[in-house]
Write a structure and sequence with these properties.
The complex is a heterodimer of chains A (about 475) and B (about 500). Chain A is an alpha+beta fold and about 475 residues long. Helix content of chain A is about 40%, strand content about 15%. Chain A has a 6-stranded mixed sheet, with helices on both faces. Chain B has helices at about 15-25, 90-95, 105-115, 140-150, 155-175, 180-190, 205-210, 210-220, 240-250, 305-315, 320-325, 360-375, 380-395, 400-410, 425-430, 430-440, 460-465; strands spanning about 5, 40-45, 45-50, 55-60, 65-75, 120-125, 125-135, 230-235, 275-280, 285-295, 335-340, 345-355, 450-455, 470-475. In chain B, strand 11 (about 335-340) and strand 12 form a beta hairpin. Chain B has about 500 residues and is α+β, with helices and mostly antiparallel strands. Classes of the chains: A alpha+beta (about 475), B alpha+beta (about 500). Chains A and B meet through helix 2, helix 3, helix 4, helix 10 and helix 12 of A and helix 1, helix 3, strand 7, helix 5 and helix 13 of B.
Chain lengths: ~475, ~500
């Protein structure tokens, strides 16, 4: 199955990369993203890039806080808080952000992921100053009442139902993340749980804002049709006066320990049309040098109908209705995730065996030059598409700065990807895709819970190897 | 050939004056700085020519990103499916990429993906499409593949069976989702046994009935150059694009047979009566609530009145989401869509909510739709809702795919391509009384049906208090093949 992350983690897949391309792989000249970086004395980082192609401007504020920073027993809080940021602030009443964007032909939204929370707008460029004022205002302080808080919490509970309970595989994806981490707070899915959401209070909101919503934990990104001097003056005027707190910024210190033996789980659901199988492997953080070969492996395994998983599992063997692989890159520890929806008439075991066979093939022999070139071409084209708009360029800049620690990676990562060799891909496949580093989750229809296949609804832990 | 028209009125009418008044009316608060003078926007102008075989070729130049998108449209979609063979059009389009006289399915996928590109084919209402997207340096081989799959598919038995099985499995998954079930049911409720009434991809029963020969015949009848439009957009010169069209589609023979009539009305929905229908799915994690009725066709003189009326209801700050999500926290999102097709399409208002609030949300949807015709609509509300339409339209055209998609839609509906340069003005001239008149005539709630898919015992008693004739169909007895929607025992 396609891993469609819920809206809150957003579907923005940012292949951070770019820059001039040589080599025979693609003759296209990748446009450089010429950005400017500033830092205010209060610690706010400002990245800007001019592109006057359309009379719009994209404004984003990236806060380096995500669901891994949810307070104790408040899973889902960082995301709930993101919703609250659209309620009353120091100088704005509830939903005023919509008046300033939607009502003038622009739009706004936000997403919360494991490591970051991003607020973004696109507006006609003559509204740039207005939006800078508004973003500075909600960074300065919130002014939410209890009625607003509770009603928005109900919205988030409906979001939970819509993304986890209503879709046939919503709970499967939820469980897959929950079980894949044993110590790190990544084990709490971003959407959280109904009980923890119910426990959240207005006091938690104020504390969270004070702790994480500060200029030295924020990156402002502006891309589009504007004048640089004017932008700098407006940023100084609206963001400059916001004080930087003295308290240190708390950072997650917990490390996810290496896996020692295969973990296997079987879960049942009420509304499961076809069984699903998920495998996860623990891989290094997003900024690690092995991230590039893993991303190339992802495309070889899962990019399009000529990819190995589609061709083998869906097309040739017809053991899966759909199959995919995703390098879920995170700041502290990543997962490489395989999922398959089992085709009707086939068994979960068949799908698992087929997935493992494809992994083994990548370990046993290097991918061909043609396959490698194809993967790189796909990555390049995707990147071009993602950077067609001001908004897409701003996401690429924010991602490089906040999650990779260097905005210039927006222009240098593509050459790193192009330098990936077949031997690199084989090396990471052997290094990380071991039996001991594997988690297996079977997600089965309720009816088979009492079936005769020997599996109970019980969770079994421990390494049975293969 | 790029640009031509400067649309100065882009965001002209949109100022923030009204807003600062709202803010100061509350407790004294700071006010946002006002906007500066608006900047103008320019859309590229499509150019076109018709090849001797009747193929209409349209080109839109946009060189800002080195990408090209090319889409070949057949001017018929799921509406021409024979009643017993629902899904035939979709299956035919899906099989285009699964093997031609010179390439296997695997070779097609490898060829396009080696270019870094994508190739998709499928059917929708009113059209079947095949689309390639690639870097502009690879456009020639990509269009070669596009032409091959459209003109020379082989529909091998093995591929037909494979796709049939995949479609059946997909449908099994889709029928696990309350929102999807509600959409399928809504089509039957609005269109009965008429051509827009069935699921586009077919039902489990109809998919099983489709034979290889049905598919090959369908292709022979409908996939003809004079029943097709080729739209190429992006970083390519018009002359080069026309040359590519000649090279790969120029020798596509126009058949001797008379070409298929496509403009006639297929619809007969006068007899369809409003219903209040519950699909009982006890394991549903949420209830999907819909209010549906027939809307308008794309060429209707009321089209722009209609989309502006819909915009008052739809969108984040539209009335439906405001009442249901923002004010009451009853849903993650509520909205509506006026789907104007070659024939009359549906108007759908929808939201998902916890099962126990199903009846309340239905009541709110109905109430807001009704209020559109009766309660005052001030310019302070209407102007922003028009801005939403205009802004969304302009943003969509920023991307090559959006540009090609918009122009392709106009072509398929037989509308002037230059309409993309009149859209903004056509929206801006609509007045509040236009909207209210439209709502009174075309969105009358009394002629609407209500559909709720969810765990009935949690909302049925409440719903029955509001409506007398509630039909309840247990999910196991749901039959998407007929207007009754109930399996015959």
């Amino acid at each position: 199955m396609r891993r469609k992350v819920t809206f809150l983690v957003s579907s923005i897949i940012l292949l951070a990369c770019s820059s001039a391309m040589q080599s025979t792989r693609a003759q296209v000249k990748m446009p450089q993203l010429n950005y400017r970086e500033r830092k205010l004395t209060n610690g706010l980082r400002v990245l800007s890039a001019i592109d006057p192609a359309s009379p719009t401007v994209a404004i984003q504020v990236w806060y380096h806080v995500g669901s891994k920073d949810d307070p104790n027993k408040r899973s889902g809080f960082a995301h709930l808080f993101e919703h609250i940021m659209f309620k009353s602030t120091k100088n704005m009443k509830s939903e005023m952000m919509d008046r300033l964007t939607e009502d003038v032909g622009g739009f706004n939204n936000a997403f919360t992921a494991d490591d970051e929370t991003v607020y973004f707008e696109v507006v006609p460029s003559n509204y740039l100053e207005t939006l800078l004022w508004a973003e500075a205002d909600r960074l300065s302080g919130l002014n939410v009442d209890d009625a607003n808080f509770k009603s928005e919490r109900d919205v988030v509970k409906e979001e939970y139902r819509q993304s986890v309970l209503a879709p046939p595989y919503g709970r499967f994806e939820y469980l897959l993340q929950q079980k894949s981490f044993t110590a790190h707070p990544y084990q709490r899915p971003t959407i959280g749980s109904i009980e923890d959401l119910d426990a959240a209070s207005l006091a938690d909101v104020q504390a969270f804002h004070a702790t994480f919503y500060r200029p030295d934990n924020a990156t402002l990104v502006v891309v589009g049709d504007f004048d640089q001097k004017q932008l700098d003056a407006w940023v100084d005027k609206y963001f400059g006066p916001i004080a930087k707190p003295n308290a240190p910024l708390p950072r997650v210190q917990i490390k996810e320990p290496p896996r020692k033996a295969e973990m296997r789980f079987t879960e049942h659901g009420q509304n499961v049309p076809l069984p699903a199988v998920g495998l996860t492997y623990l891989t290094p953080p997003k900024a690690d040098a092995d991230a590039e070969p893993l991303r190339v492996a992802e495309v070889i395994l899962s990019g399009g109908e000529s990819s190995r998983l589609y061709h083998s599992l869906v097309y040739e063997q017809q053991v899966a209705q759909s199959a995919g692989a995703t390098a879920e890159l995170r700041e502290d520890a990543s997962l490489f995730v395989f999922t398959a929806n089992v085709a009707s008439g086939k068994k979960s075991e068949d799908a698992e065996r087929a997935l493992l066979a494809e992994i083994k093939k990548m370990q046993d022999s290097p991918v061909s030059k043609a396959e490698l070139d194809k993967a790189i071409s796909q990555i390049v084209t995707n990147q071009l598409r993602e950077r067609e708009t001001n908004s897409g360029k701003a996401f690429a800049l924010g991602e490089a700065a906040v999650l990779l620690g260097d905005p210039n990676r927006v222009n240098t990562d593509l050459s790193k990807l192009q330098a990936v060799t077949a031997a690199d891909v084989q090396r990471v496949m052997k290094k990380y895709f071991t039996d001991a580093n594997r988690l297996v989750l079977y997600y089965l229809p309720e009816a088979t819970a009492t079936g005769s296949n020997g599996r109970s609804g019980q969770t079994t832990r421990g390494g049975q190897g293969r | 050939m790029k640009v031509n028209k400067t649309l100065q009125l882009f965001f002209l009418a949109l100022t923030l004056l009204g807003m600062s008044a709202i803010v100061t009316a509350q407790t004294p608060q700071g006010t946002p700085p006002p906007p500066s003078a608006p900047h103008s926007v320019q859309f590229p102008k499509p150019v076109e020519k018709t090849l001797p075989n009747g193929l209409r070729v349209i080109v839109i130049e946009r060189s800002s990103t080195p990408l090209v998108s090319a889409t070949l449209l057949i001017k018929n979609g799921g509406e021409v499916d024979p009643p017993q063979l629902a899904g035939l059009t979709d299956m035919t389009a899906g099989l285009l990429t699964k093997g031609t006289q010179s390439r296997s399915a695997t070779q097609i996928a490898e060829a396009i993906e080696a270019l870094g590109g994508s190739l998709d084919s499928g059917a929708r209402w009113d059209a079947s499409t095949a689309t390639v997207g690639v870097m502009s340096s690879k456009v020639d081989p990509a269009v070669a593949i596009l032409a091959d799959v459209v003109r020379h598919p082989t529909f091998k038995d093995e591929e037909v069976e494979r796709l049939r099985q995949q479609n059946l499995d997909n449908l099994t998954v889709e029928l696990g989702e309350p929102g999807t079930i509600a959409r399928f049911v809504a089509a039957r409720v609005v269109f009965g046994d008429s051509p827009y009434g069935h699921p586009l991809g077919g039902t489990p029963e109809s998919i099983a009935r489709i034979k290889r020969d049905d598919i090959a015949n369908f292709h022979q009848v409908f996939y003809q150059p004079d029943n097709a439009v080729l739209v190429i957009g992006g970083d390519i010169k018009a002359a080069d694009a026309f040359a590519l069209a000649e090279k790969y589609f120029g020798d596509w023979q126009r058949p001797f047979r008379k070409s298929v009539a496509i403009e006639e009305s297929l619809l007969d929905i006068a007899e369809v009566k409003p219903r209040v229908l519950v699909i009982d799915k006890p394991d549903a994690g949420q209830a999907a609530v819909m209010v549906v009725r027939k809307g308008i066709n794309r060429k209707s003189p009321d089209y722009f009145r209609g989309i502006v009326a819909n915009s008052v209801l739809n969108g984040y700050s539209g009335r439906l989401n405001f009442e249901i999500r923002i004010k009451r926290g009853l849903s993650y999102g509520a909205g509506s869509a006026l789907d104007a097709r070659r024939d009359i399409g549906p108007f759908v208002a929808s939201a998902q909510t916890k099962n126990v609030s199903g009846a309340q949300v239905a009541d709110l949807l109905i109430g807001e739709i009704g209020r559109l015709a009766t309660a005052p609509l001030l310019d302070a509300e209407l102007t922003p809702r028009k801005a939403v339409l205009v802004g969304g339209f302009a943003r969509n055209l920023e991307q090559v795919n959006g540009l090609v998609g918009q122009v392709a839609s106009l072509a398929v509906q037989g509308l002037p391509l230059d309409d993309i340069n009149h859209y903004i003005n056509n929206v801006q001239v609509i007045t509040a009384s236009d909207v209210q008149r439209f709502a009174g005539v075309f969105l009358n709630a009394k002629e609407s049906s209500i559909i709720i898919v969810g765990n009935a015992k949690e909302f049925l008693p409440e719903l029955q208090k509001q409506f007398k004739n509630v039909e309840v169909i247990p999910i196991a007895e749901l039959d998407l093949n007929s207007a009754s929607l109930r399996k015959k025992n």
